[in-house]
Amino acid sequence: MKKIFLILFSIIVFSSCDNNHGIVKYDDPKTDAIRTVFEYVSNEDNSYLEEVFSKEMFMVNPVNDTIYYDDFLAGIEDMYDLFDDIAFDTGDGDANADEVETNYYTNGLVWTQIWSSFEATGKYTKEKVSFPFHIAYRWEGDKIIEEYQFFDMTVFKNEEQAKIESLNN
Asked: What is the pTM of this model?
């Protein structure tokens, strides 16, 4: 009985080790596309975003609002109005800090994720800001169809408030 238990236990352990649900890549076209998105945003240029995001895309922001393509692009433009010197670090594939990776799942789904930091100077507060963020992008073919953002929005709210106050004075 003890041998049977040991054999069953060994089979379970070895079979559970072969539980491959997909692969992760750091140097593929989709990962490079996300790095390019952040390069264009740093340059305050939405032209590449207009190409890579599907017109049917939606984004869920950190406070769980769902935003669609046109409003998404307008929101990026609003960010350019609030901040100067926007910068991001998109990593180098060593998984030690800021990083971008694409997950190709066996069920056909493809997700690219970025862990980075937003750095900029507020145009209205004149404050240098920096905060970590995580964003996940789901691909449909060569277009991004979904985006989920995870970060504290305090920096954006503070800068928006400073803009409102400057317009009221």
From this structure: 0.84
